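Homework-ish question, so no full write-ups if that breaks the rules, but can someone show me the predicted structure for this set?
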Amino acid sequence: MQLKELVPELHDALKLTVLEHDVSEWNEQEVETFKDFLPIDTETWKGITQHHLGFKIYPTEPDTFYLCVADSLASHVTRIGQPGSVEYRLNKPWRGPEEEKDPRLKETEDIIRLFSFLQTDPEWAEFCREYEDLLRTRSEDLRQGLNVTSLYTHCKLTGQFYRILRNPLLFPVSPTEIEGKTGEEVKALYGRNYFEKWQLVVSRCRFRFLQKPYRVRDLNVFAALEELMKEVSTSYADNVLLGTSNELLLVLSDEGQLSNIVAVAHRRGFWVEVIKARRPLKELKPNPEGMIGKTLENLYDLPPQIPPPICEICQSAKADKYWPEDYLLSRLGLCPSCQQLLSQNPLASVIDLLCEIDKAKMEEILKEPTREELCERCFALRAEGTRLHKLDTWGKEAQNKVTWVKIKLDFDRLQETLESLSGGEVSFSVVAEFQQDYYRFLEQFTGQIQRTFRHRNVESILTDFFCIRVDSFRQAFGVLQVYYELLRVFFPAFLGLEKSPLRISMVCAGAKFPFFEVWNILEDGPDDVFVSLQGTRTIRAPIGGLELLVRAASLRYPKSALHKLTRIEETSETLAELTFQDRRDKDRSTYSKLASGLRPSLGFSSIFTFARLMED
Amino acid sequence: MRFIEFDLYSDALCMGERTKGGLLRPCCRTIRYSQISGALRKKFGVGDIHAAGYLVDGNGYNRTNYLIYSPRERVSGVSKVPLQVEFLTNMRGKVYALENDSTAGFPDRFVIYMGAFTSKGFGLCKLKKVAVIEAEPPAKGVLRTRIPLDKLATFNVRRVIRAVHGYLFEPTSPTTGIYVLSLFEGSEVVAPEFLISPVRRR
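A: Not a homework solution, just the prediction itself:
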């Protein structure tokens, strides 16, 4: 039987048990009990027993050497100074300690079952099917201060680094450099490679589109963005460390890989904001922003000149299609006379001359027959037809109100936050651990929003971007309530920060409000909590003000007083401010309530916007 | 290299973006090279004018408003689908024109017409000369205007750190033109201080 290759993720399988991690440290009784069940014929067992320089059996061949280096890169342990006493529970800095219990396998039969399973030489996915719960509850290290990441995260990350490094052309290590060498010699080789010779590229790529979508059917650009992210995340699965709906943190073996990723983005019509740094393994950080020698670039694929007409949506390619005429001619199977009319005239000028059968086919288009000049790519995106059917329906009724919601993760602020919360250098494994919680947070947020506002009223555009149909704008605070509750569950430590790495931006507007304006507002907002009303008035609050906002929104206020306040503000913000100051002690049901509830963290402008939203 | 600094005022100005959301015509939030240079060239009848500018923040300045406008077919007299046009009121801006033989003699105060709907009362801009300033020293910052790539040296933009690209129209004759690759607001550059704002973290 041909041996399977080493499965790097399983290198710490012994940590699932109460046995010593280093097999050579087992006592006689343990050796005697388990010797017949050990998967000694597998390459993976070599990985389990030889992945540490500190073990008596140190790496003796290139694969276990790569594993040893990958293990160091994926470890939180190597980054921290003095650890504390043993603590079995996970203690993530953003979440706090979990329930204290030792999840490790203690019973002999359970450990034998684990070894028997390892004898089948399972892949990582198969192993996860059996032991994922245990992997997720067992921390990478049991000592206080090091029990930040789960064994699952550490093992998965080790596998990723192993496959990145196991490239003899870029990271050469020959069998003769290791086989038959003493422990000290292998340590010296490790030191040379880890501290000097071997270098990796850490890069952050933000993918952006050139289009300025105004209509629902042009929002297909988000589907294109999703496909791009999927393609990159699948093709470079081992390289992706952290991702949002349009941004990736990558660890790459060389800059060629980065060029390939950028080329994929260009092929799909996107441009890329790139920050990158190439450094020796020892100097790598999970954010290039903080690394020596970082470079910043915006990478486009644009011609120096474009003869008119230029595409009205992306403004970056020659427009050689007419919307809707080319769409109607190519897709709808019109009669010859209508085809001839449309091939020579704009639709708007020949509507009355079209036959009734063809007119019926183009009923939707006839509602907005204005001609637009588009490039091939924007035309193709629009011609696909909208995938956002709910939003399309809401947009047809001018009186419909919607709230756009975008959750944003600020990578730089995340790095700073994790450093301050964990009191030390942030490792790759901490960021990878955070990512898993972040994904779960987004999943729960989506589910909770759909339950609160009903599925039929929620359009999910990206994993972190939603449009919700509301009856009144005050319902926007329901979104903040969900956000606040989930932050308390997943990232309670963020609520006490001055600035949060997670931000929420919302725009309350009519369903017909131009989308690109919404997108600009959502993209720009630097505040932890940002609510815009029709693009003109805003609530800006720090994360500490979120609880106050949610609480204040749950109270009742006399509508007439709110109305009066907003009308005064329409005339003069200063006058409204004076009125507010004057009445805060006299009118307890409105001004006093607003002042005590919101004034500590919100400016007057935000309070007036709050009053407007509550009045709706 | 010296630039003449002007304050620009307009009661109502419609500087249309080329992007058109079908029935919405958005308004540009900066004073791009092509627009202000074109307007000045038209006013003074000379070609060698290079200017760019931006909107000035301030209480009540540059408020966005909307005009519903229905263009009419000239031959048939039939109105087309109404358009929603964005425009700015109480507009305040700064304009910087390269000092050369064509611009040195500009009066201290003058008016130009710029942007769309000039026949409907929009676009009257009053310019007031404020100072003549040196384009030194260049500093690192975020560009506040739009300049064609081939005109960067004219504005003493020394280095482009991180570009935000787009296209500006460049006339090649009174009836023809071409779109040229340009640097847009938001680009990180090393340029004269009057063209930039401090770098904000992304």
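Now go work out the reasoning yourself. Hint: The longest strand of chain B covers residues 83-98.
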